[in-house]
User: Fold these one by one.
Assistant:
Number 1:
Amino acid sequence: MRPKHLGDFKPKPTLYTLPHGIEVIGEYPPRGVNRYWRVRIRPHHFFKGKVVSRGVYTTRNRAVMSSVLGRALLPTEHVHHKNEDRGDDDPGNLEVLTAAEHNRHHKTGARHSDATKKKIGASLKVAFSDGRRTPPLKGFFEGQKHSDEAKRKMSETRKKMIAEGIIEKPTPPSAKGRKASIEARQKQSEYASGRDRNEDGRFVL
C-alpha cells in the first residue's frame, strides 16, 4: 500500500508507442552540448539506463532503431542519419554503423584548424607529463618493412576506398617529383646504413 504522505500517484500519459512495446512518455529537443532529440520511455528490457521519475532517458534515434531491429543496441553501435539531419528520426533515415564507420563517414577529408591543433598539442603535453599517455618513440618503426600479406591487404583496402569515393585516386608524380623521391630514399638509405641495430633489427635509439 502506498504511504499517504506521498499522495496519489498518477502515471505520466504515453505520448506514443513504438514497436515492441516501447512507450515514450517524454520528448526533449536538442539543448546545449546535446545535439540529438532525447526521449524518456517507460522501463523496457531493451534499455538498461538509470530509471529517473519512472522512466529511462535515451536518444530518440536509438529508441527508434531498437524498435526497428527488435533488440537492444550494443554500446559499440552508432545510429547514423543518412540525410545528415539529426532531427529526422524516421526509420528510413537511420542506419546502424560501427564507431569506426561512423567516424570515417563524418571525418574523411576533414582537417583540424590551427587553433584546434594547438589545443590538441597542449592536451597531449599535459597527458605525457601526467603519465596518462606515453610519448611515441622516435625512430621506433624506422627501417621496418611490411610483409607481402600486409601490403596486399593495404592495397585492396585502398582500391576499395577509391572505388567507393572515400579517398581520391593519387596522381602519379612528375619526372621532377620522381627524381626528388629517389634522391630522398638514397639519402635515407645512406643515413640508415651508418646506424647500429639491435637484435630485432630496429635502430638503437
Number 2:
Amino acid sequence: MDADDISETTRLQEQLAFAVANPQVKVLGCQLTIIDKNNRVIGYRKYPADPEAVRTAMRRFNAIPHPAVFAQKDILTSVGGYDPAMFLAEDYDLWSRILQKGYQIANMRQALLKYRIHAGASKAAKTKECLRKTLEVKDKYFRHEFTFGDHIRFRLEKILSYLPAPLIYSLFLLVTYRRRSQRS
C-alpha cells in the first residue's frame, strides 16, 4: 500500500476472517475504489474473485491488487519473495510463481482499499518499462496456457510498447478503471 492510498478501517479484519474461513487461499486481495488527489471517488477497479477466475485472468493481466494484498508470509518466502530483477512487475511475478506452485489466490468482492491515481505513480512515470516487464511475466509463466485471444492480446501489447508512454498510460487507465457511474 502506498502512503497516499487509504485502507478501509475494517480491511484487515475482513481479510483475516476470509483467510481463516478459506485456508486454501494463500494470497488475498480485494476490489479497489479509485480516488483522485483530493480523495474524490472517480472510479472502481474490479478484479476476479474466485481462485479459478484469478488464475485464468493472470494470463492476461495482474489480477491481484498489490496494495491490498493479505498473504501468508511463509508462502511468499517459499517461492523466493520479490525478484529485484522484475522491478515494476515484481508483484505480478511473485503471484505467478505462487500460482505455479499450485497455491490458490483470490480477491474479496468488497472494495476495501481506496487507490489513488496521480501522475507521479511508478506506473505512470515508467509506463514502457512496466509494460515490458509485464509482458516478460506473461511470456515466462503463462504463454504455454494462452488461448488464441491471449496470443492476440499479447501481440497487441507488444505493439503498444512502441507508442509514446503518456498514450500507453492513458489507454491503460481507460480500459482498466471503471468510471464512477459504471460501477457494477
Number 3:
Amino acid sequence: MKKAITKLTVAALLFGLGYTVSVSTTEPATSESTVATKSYGKVEHPATDFDNQIASGIVILDFFATWCPPCQRFSSVFTNAAEKHPNILFIKIDVEKYQDIANRFGIRSMPTIIALKDGKKIKTKTGFMNKAQFDTWINSLA
C-alpha cells in the first residue's frame, strides 16, 4: 500500500505543476512512468526529460530565485506573455531547485531570460523587463 500512496503523491504533485501524468499501478514507479507533455499558452516547470522538452520550437526560459525582488516582479509579466503567445513554450526555472540546468546555461544573475529555437540559444537578456519591453523582446525572436 505504501508504494501506491507514493505513486499517488508523485502524480498529484506533477499534476499540480501542470503536467500530464501517467502512473502505472501494476509496475514499479520509474522515470518512464511519468511523462511530461508540452503545454503551450501557460508556464511550465522543467520536466524530467528537459532536453526533449526544449528540443523543438521556440522556448523561453526564465531563470529566477524566489528571494529575488526583480524576479518576483517579472513573474506576472512572464505568465501573461505565455498566455499571449500560445505558439511558444515558457518554462520557469528556479536556480536553487534546478542548479544543474542553471549551471548548464551559465546563469550568474537573475532574472535571466533565454530564448531557444530547436534547442539552441538564440537570445539572452539579464535583468527585469516590463510588459512592453518583454513583448518587444519576444517579437524580435521571429
Number 4:
Amino acid sequence: MGRPATVVAALNAQAVTTFVVYKTITPSGNGGCLVDLGIDDTGNFMLADGNQVGSFADSFMKVPNTAQSAFSTLATSIGSYTNGTGTFPLERWHVDGGCVGHASSASAGPGATVSLCIGANANNGAFINCEADIYEILFWDQALTPTEVMQAHMWACEKYGQSYPWASRDHMLVFDGDSITMGLGGSSPADSYPYKVAQTLGLSFGQWTNLGIGGDTITEMDTRAPAGVDDVYALIGKPVKLAAFEWYNQRAASPTPRNNSLTYLSNRRSSTVKVCFGTSTDTSATTDTDRADYNTYFDANNTSATMDAYVAIHADANIGVETAAANFPGNFADGVHLSAAGYTILAGLMVTGVNALVFAPTINTQPANLSVYENALANFTIAATASSGTNSYQWKKNGVNVGTDSTTLSFTAALSDNAALITCDVTDDNGTVTSSTATLTVIPSSIVAWMVA
C-alpha cells in the first residue's frame, strides 16, 4: 500500500490498519497528531503528545501515557464487524501491541473530503502539532487481528533493538466481553474496568489487552477468541490470564445462557490459558427472570472443573444485586452500562479474581524412556520454564525421592532398576507440576558377555 490514494481507498472501504513506530520529543498536551487519514474531520486520527495517546473515531479515545519518550507503537485497525446488533465498522486501537479501546469508525460518503497527513491534522488547528520522531508508518488494506498487531509490535521491537513489553512478565493479561468490558458509559477508555485493573496491577501498555466489543454475545466471543486469546501463547511464549464474562446480550439464548458460557470456558481453558469468569451486573433496562437462575447455577458450579477463578459480580450490593441500579444510580450511566464509579467497583472485584489465577511451571521437554546396560550410567533430563521465580526439581524413582535439585538425574543402573519408573516434580513460586513417566530398561551383563563371546 505504497500510495496515499490506495490508503485512502482502503479507509473508505473500512478495511485498513495503520501502524506507527515513534517516540515523542517534547510533551505538548495539545493532542498532537501522528497520522490523520481524515474524512471531513473524521476517520483514522491517531494522537500522541507525550502525556496521552489514543485515537479518534466517532469520539476521542485517549488514555494517559507518559512513557512515549524512548520507543512506542500506536496502531488502529478498522474493519467491518457483525454481531447481534448488526454490521458496523469497528475500530480497535493498540498501544505497544495491546488493544486499549474500541469504537464505531466513521466512514466517508459520496463527495467526502479525504486527506492523508503525517504529523499534523489538516482540518483542525487545535491538534496540529506533533513533536515526535516517526520511524515507520505501515499500512495494511485489511483489519489486523489483535494478535497480528502484537506480532507487528514484536517486529518493531526487534528492528529497533527494544525489549518486548511483556518480557519481564510471566503472562499476558487478556480481557474479553461485551460493552461492559469495552467500558461503554465511561468518558474514556481510562474509565473501563480493564484499564483500571491494569493500573492496579502496575501493568504497562503491551502487558494487557482488551477485546471487549459492544453487542457481543458470549457465543460471538467464542467465535473470535481463536484470534486474540487462543493464539497468544504460540506467538509470545507467555501463558494467558483471561478475565471474561457476558450475560446481557446472551440472555435470550436457547436453551439457557449458561450453556454458551460453559462452551466458551471449555474452549478457552488449557495449560496455557487460565480463566477468571464473572457473572453479571444489574440492569434496570429490562427484567430477566433467567438472570437469577444463571447466577445461581454458577454460584454452585464454579469449581476447577469449569473455571480457574470465579467472581460473583451479581452479589455485589453496589453494581450487581437486583436493586443496585435503583439504589446507587451514580454507579450506572444508563439502564445497562456502568459509570466511571461503577467500573472502579467492578475493577476491584475482578482484580481479586485475576490474582487468583496462577500457572505451574511449563515442562518443555519430558524425561524419555531409556535402555542401558547393567552397571552403566543412566541419565534422565528435563527442561521446564518457570511461571514465576525459579524452578526446583525433585526426581523420583518408583515414587521415592532420588537425585539432586537438577534438570538431570544420573545414577549407575543396577539390574534391580529394570522397569523402574522415573518422574520429576518441578516447582516454582506458583505451584508444582509432575512430568510424564519414563521407564528404565536395564540389560543384564550376562547377555552382554554372551553377545561378546
